[in-house]
Design a protein that fits this description.
The chain is of the alpha/beta class and 312 residues long. Helix content is 43%, strand content 14%. It has 14 helices and 7 strands. The N and C termini lie far apart (46 Å). The chain binds S-adenosylmethionine.
């Protein structure tokens, strides 16, 4: 299957990163190298450092980037380990960071990866196939309470109670091993009239399980703050999110790093000595244009936030 993924808000990201031809740029979510290819094309003496934890993405992206220039290095890593990646390469400070969070179209569309609620496959959902936890483990081994928490928190799923009840009932007799089995359980838990009004009811629960399997939200806030520490003054960080939880984390992390004093309001004199390190470029997030949303339905929930480092 061909690795297809259309980069979202590509030119908004490139503009937002304000790429310098001699700069060092870090793309933590390389995917099919849609954004990275365009960054690399704009570099002369600069360098692109990119990570992905998906072997298939890394292989395809490396091939695509090699056709553009040699000024890049693609590393298999979680972007949350970016400090180590930069240290290993002897890079102290960088000019820009891009994160395009979540999964690629290829991961979603390739049934074998077990992310899809449309196609039938083994429940998997791991971005990094060498990691231990799979969707099958989550669905079969997590307690009803843990599943409830995940579906509410990561999926904001209204019919969580009914879905969890039916999962627990099903697994009393048989393990849930395929995406279709799980999709069928979700469908029988959500009233038909809701399904007719709102479409396929599996989206939120599949998203919630995927977030859990890949630890997508864990340490994201701290990672963003650390990435800001590693930017040069004048450097930019651009982050695309696809759901409200992720967007809230990015918004809060930017706000924290853009705030001078964080003392409690009742303290008359600042004792924290916290200094704003960035200014927020996007007071409101940038959204895909109507044209992009029409041409690429996967862009509709995307939000882009950008900040610029102003001091160490
Ligand atoms: C939305 S896609 C990026 C697409 C890319 N910007 C492009 O235009 O082709 C997200 C990619 O990031 C990877 N990814 C997600 N979270 C990651 C993490 N914490 N560390 C490393 N890679 C991650 C996924 O495996 C996926 O390939």
């Amino acid at each position: 299957m061909e690795f297809k993924h259309t980069p979202i808000m590509l030119f908004e990201c490139l503009d937002g990163l304000d790429i310098k031809p001699n700069g060092i740029y870090f793309d933590g979510t390389l995917g099919g190298a849609g954004h990275s290819s365009e960054i690399l094309k704009r570099l002369e003496t600069g360098r692109l450092i990119a990570t992905d934890k998906d072997d298939e993405a890394l292989a395809v992206a490396t091939e695509r980037l090699s056709k553009i220039s040699k000024n890049f290095v693609a590393v298999k890593s979680d972007f949350k380990q970016f400090d180590k990646v930069l240290d290993d390469l002897g890079v102290e400070k960088i000019d820009g960071v891009l994160l395009d969070l979540g999964v690629s179209s290829y991961q979603l569309d390739n049934a074998q990866r077990g992310f899809s609620y449309i196609a039938d496959a083994k429940l998997d959902m791991r971005m990094d196939k060498s990691s231990a936890l799979t969707a099958e483990d989550v669905v079969n081994n997590y307690s009803a309470e843990a599943l409830t928490k995940i579906f509410y928190e990561y999926g904001e799923e209204t019919f969580t109670k009914e879905i969890v009840k039916n999962i627990v009932k099903f697994r009393e007799t048989e393990r849930i091993t395929t995406t279709k089995q799980l999709a069928d359980i979700i469908k029988m838990s959500v009233p038909k009239k809701v399904q007719i009004a709102k479409g396929n009811p599996c989206k939120k629960v599949f998203q919630a399980i995927r977030i859990e399997v890949n630890g997508e939200l864990a340490n994201l806030y701290d990672t963003i703050c650390k990435m800001i520490d590693r930017l040069k003054v004048g450097g930019r960080i651009a982050i695309i999110t696809f759901h409200s939880l992720e967007d809230r984390i990015v918004k809060d992390a930017f706000k924290f790093c853009a705030t001078d004093c964080i003392c409690p309001k009742n303290i008359p004199v600042c004792v924290c000595h916290h200094k704003a390190k960035v200014k927020i470029i996007t007071k409101k997030p940038i959204l895909p244009s109507d044209k992009e949303q029409k041409e690429n339905s996967r862009s509709t929930s995307a939000k882009l936030r950008i900040a610029e480092k102003i001091c160490e």
